[in-house]
Amino acid sequence: MGVPIKVQVNGKTYERTVEPRTLLVHFLREELGLTGTNVGCETSLCGACTVMVDGKTVKSCTQLALQADGSSVTTIEGIADGDRLSAVQEGFWEKHGLQCGYCTPGMIMAATHLLSENPKPSEAEIRAGLKGNLCRCTGYHNIVEAVKYAAAKMA
Amino acid sequence: MKRDLDRPGGSATLGGDAASSAVSWPRRPIARQPGQPPHDSALGHVQGSARYIDDLPLREGELRIALVGAPCARGRVTRLDLDAVRAAPGVVGVYTAADLPGANLWGPIFHDEPVLAEEVVAYLGQPLAVVAADDERDARAAAALARVEVEEEEPVLTIEQAVAAGEFIGPQRQIARGDLEAGWERARQRIEGRFESKGQEQFYLESQAALVVPEEGGSLLVYSSTQNPTEIQKVVADALGWRQSQVVCEVLRMGGAFGGKETQAALPAVFAALVAFHTHRPVRVVYGKDEDMLLTGKRHEFHTDYRIGFDERGRIVAAELDVRSNGGAYADLSTAVLERCMLHLDNAYHLPAVRIGARVCRTNLPPNTAFRGFGGPQGMAVIESCMEEIAARLRLDPLDVRRVNLYPADEASDAALTPYGQRVRGNLLPEIFDRLEQSSDYRLRRREISQHNARTDAWGEPPCVLRGLSLVPVKFGISFTNKTLNQANALVNVYTDGSVQVSTGATEMGQGVNTKLAMIVAQEFGIDHRRVVVRPTSTEKNNNTSPTAASASTDLNGAAAVKACAAIRERLAELASGLLAGSTDGLAPAPEQVGFEGGAVFDRRAPERRIDFAELCRRAHVERIDLGARSFYATPGIDFDRETGRGCPFAYYTTGACVAEVRVDRLLGTLELERLDVLMDIGKPIHLAIEMGQIVGGLVQGIGWVTGEELVYDGRGELLTTSPTTYKIPAASDLPRDLRVEILDNDLNRHNVRSTKAVGEPPLMLAIAVWTAVRDALGAAVALGARPGDLRIPATHEEIARTLSGCSVEEWIAAS
User: Fold this and answer.
1) Residue B4 above 60 pLDDT?
2) For residue B508, what pLDDT band results from cuts at 50, 70 and 90?
3) 13-72 of A, contacting B, C-beta below 8 A
4) Is the pLDDT score of B3 beyond 60?
5) Is the pLDDT of residue B16 over 50?
6) Can you tell me the mean pLDDT for B168-196?
7) What digits encode the pLDDT tens for the residues B630-673?
8) What does the pLDDT read at residue B22?
9) Three-state secondary structure along B26-95?
10) Of A143, B94, B562, B666, which has the highest C-beta tally within 10 A?
11) Has residue B18 got a pLDDT over 90?
């Protein structure tokens, strides 16, 4: 049994009918074709599926699409200004803050949120702020560098 | 900068800086610097447009699958009733071993593992049937309706149980060298005991995945997240009873692999292929995380019984090591992992008289498999633990014990011979020791730490923190120990606008091999790296490839690519020499004088006149000159006889060392990483930021193995830690407070392409220093009852607390 929802994703309004059990991440990936948000652990711990709902980071693998009804969702596809990368995206690109890339979209969303709340984070605050997003490749060093780069650029 | 080995002391300056003093360590930047190209997928990754298997657009008529698995770890199947599954909504087909048109046995070394289990099940969850449906949820719901009855047998889960039951995989192996009897006579003291290290989950973030698309005329195109497309091609063809030429496997990228997709990407791909074979429809499979963790193999657990004799300086004179690994239910790569373990039990130390015996145990767990280091970490950890024990026995600094045992810089010395008879050449470890000892202020910090720990004299009294320090070297052999695998081919196509496509067997899993290959090829043609595109690996372009493994993918595929470029360059030089000579003051055409640089070609005798590279390519095409080449490379000079345990299995060694300082809370057992100093010899880097990324990433993964990552199984053989809720890989907050990474300048590794050295696996083992530092810290609490010699890998907080308490594992379990 479908339920109608109205949700704004990356600035565009979508009216869709979803099954109540549909997860937000599946709605984004399968219904809207926004495959930049990845499914990692399916238990809200790895952070690969992190998106922003009304300005706050959410693990979209453990939130229902229904819960986003009436909300504004930002995914990795909506974070750049047209062709211009956001400072955080640029940081990950510039500082080689990525390897396999699977965690990168979620990590960028988490970092973006972190900087929106704390524009001048210390290194310790960056590490703490990103601990809900796992990366198996980089050892995090360059991810922290990427966030520092973005903070400096946005200052 | 070339190393001047003739200089007294053989010292070289650290990169970009004058000789370092103890205080001003020249830190080399880890992150990307201007001039270094970004990772070739960087833009796609930051925009979310880089695609993994699950992101590929839905195909028309696409099916998804789910598995019916064994309900217990060991037994005989008495009933497999799939009627309810077949009748479930959305189900298109249900397939068992009987539906496999080809062979139901596969395996990278021995063909001993069923694609789908038949009468016998050998691990919990082992696939018995594949359910296909239009929708994944339907497939999973239907699979749950299967009625599987198994006459259960007591599973063999541990190494001890397997040894007691005589359950082994492959033969007993041995490597021996020197006169043990004389060694034992020389020994002043001896230590003996058992060292244990547990397994580790690869924890790639992208689970195993494949998309199989039927093509015309009885053929399949398999998109797989695999390190080993040729293996997928073979296993799919075998299972379907087809020729390999009927299957193409393509790999765009993996969302991490770490060895876990070297062999174990095969089963999901075969399941999808089986369904595609029967339905003629595209089939996609993407494991769930818990499913992936439950069903796929891990790093091997190892137990090693050791007996080591040493002299008064701690120099090892006799070593007997008896190694057992937990292989799981089928062979997979276990015998090769065991072999690499045996070849790394010496780590960086000369063992003049040694006997190593080793065997793989068969248990009822999913077959354990490759994981970065491939047995090397498990071997090195044994000898490093012994170094700590010897030092404690002799009341020496463990650094000094390591130092007297280290392979020498002098490669002619008898002490440069490994247990298997290969000579350690170009060894920079003595220099690395000297430099790190200085730059990390080792001696000063050792004194401070000793003073600090000496105040820890009673329970509950401040300070509660024990500090530990350790320097551990790594010497990792580069080459597949299976000689056959040390080959690669590369296809280089140059287009008439001077742009280039490269295809090799090297698969991209994030490590940056594509970026490095593009740089190598760009340099060969003297063009900008942006003109070079590295295409997805496909068995259609590169046949009979070796897995992207053993750290050797740039070595092998890069060398093949260089040869292909050289072949094209030779033809272009021939053409260019004529064009340039015609306009140059009376110079005869001389192809050997043609240089490729800055996007142009020129005659070195008159370098001012240049022809644009693109223009030359256009002319070459007009003149009917071949602008493509496929080349082949096989590593020379390697050979190893596993019967006798002797030979030269490795082209060279990548070396390095790490100084770790840790803080252990002696009441809670919690651990903090204070500072890590790393110095590596990775030859001449191709792309320093990418290689630094491998160093730091490998190091942190290794820290996970030796500290927080613990696999827990119940008595039925069910993995209880099947998600990051319970299985803890390092997070950003677990980084060492202070991390310093440096490399030596070394242009002399002529054995390898561009004088580089492989860097993928070796840094993982630097993390053993963290574990030995924990052990070192615990040494300060011996008077309080701690038993540091009992510490196992991983040193979880609980394991540290147990070791501090002095409890045995049995006592600890009983008490908790």
Assistant:
1) no
2) very high
3) 29, 34-43, 45-46, 48
4) no
5) no
6) 97
7) 999 999 999 999 999 999 999 999 999 999 999 999 889 999 99
8) 31
9) CCCCCCCCCCCCCCCCHHHHHHCCCCCHHHCCCCCCCEEEEEEECCCCCEEEEEEECHHHHHCCCEEEEE
10) A143
11) no
Closest CA to A33 of A71, A64, A77: A77
Q: Is the pLDDT of residue B399 over 90?
A: yes
Question: Which class is domain A3-78?
Answer: alpha beta
- Name residues 67-106 of chain A within 8 A of B (Cβ): 75-77, 80, 85, 89-90, 92-105
Q: Tell me whether the CATH fold assigned to B54-155+202-295 matches the one assigned to B156-198+300-405.
A: no
Average pLDDT over residues B143-167: 98
CATH number of B487-634, picked from 1.10.357.10, 3.40.50.300, 3.30.365.10, 3.20.20.70: 3.30.365.10
CA-to-CA separations, B99 to A88, B96, B104, B271, in angstroms, rounded: 51, 5, 10, 11
CB pair distance less than 8 Å for A138 and B42:
no
Gap between the Cα atoms of A48 and B203, Å rounded: 13
Closest residue in A to B372 (Cα) is: A137
Domain ranges of chain B: 54-155+202-295, 156-198+300-405, 487-634
CATH of B54-155+202-295, one of 3.20.20.140, 1.20.1630.10, 3.90.220.20, 3.90.1170.50: 3.90.1170.50
**A41 vs B contacts (CB less than 8 Å):** 205, 289, 723-724
Q: How does residue B458 score in pLDDT terms, banded at 50, 70 and 90?
A: low
pLDDT of residue B462: 57
Write out the two tokens for B504.
Answer: 């090799």
Separation of alpha carbons B319 and B309, rounded Å:
6
Structure tokens at B12: 């070289």
Would the CB atoms of B30 and A142 count as touching at under 8 Å?
yes
What CA–CA distance (Å, rounded) separates A59 from A46? Answer: 9
Determine which one of B761, B798, B810, B811 is catalytic: B761
Which residues make Cβ contacts (< 8 Å) with residue B498, sequence separation at least 6?
Answer: B527, B531, B599, B612, B613, B614, B615, B616, B617, B618
pLDDT at residue B409 tops 60 = yes
**Would you call A139 and B700 a contact, using CB atoms and an 8 Å cutoff?**
yes
Distance (Å) of CA B111 to CA B257, B642, B643, B702, B782: 23, 19, 20, 31, 50
* C-alpha distances out from residue B792 to B731, B802, B809, Å: 22, 10, 10
Measured CA to CA, the distance from residue B651 to residue B272 in angstroms comes to: 38
The structure tokens listed for B565 are: 């470029």
Looking at every residue in chain B, the average pLDDT score rounds to: 94
The answer to which of A39-53, B203-217, B576-590 has the lowest mean pLDDT is B576-590
Please compute, for residue B306, the number of CA atoms within 13 A of its CA located in the half-sphere on the CB side: 30
pLDDT for the residue numbered B138:
97
Task: Name the CATH topology of A87-154.
Answer: DNA polymerase; domain 1 (1.10.150)
Beta-carbon separation of A38 and B735 below 8 A: no
**What is the distance between the alpha carbons of residues A127 and A144, in angstroms, rounded to a whole number?**
7
Q: What percentage of chain A exceeds 70 in pLDDT?
A: 100
Note if B761 is an active site residue. Answer: yes
- Listing DSSP states for B377-393 in one string gives HHHHHHHHHHHHHHHHH
* ipTM here: 0.98
For residue A121, is pLDDT > 60?
yes
Rounded average pLDDT over B341-353: 98
Domain positions in chain A = 3-78, 87-154
Q: Verify whether the Cβ–Cβ distance A126 to B732 is below 8 Å.
A: yes
> Which tokens in the block code for residue B101?
């048109």
User: Nearest by CB to B725, which of A34, A38, A43?
Assistant: A43
Q: B156-198+300-405 has which fold? A: Aldehyde Oxidoreductase; domain 4 (3.30.365)
- d(CA B187, CA B182) in angstroms, rounded, equals 9
* Tokens 């990407």, located at residue: B265
Model's pTM, two decimal places? 0.96
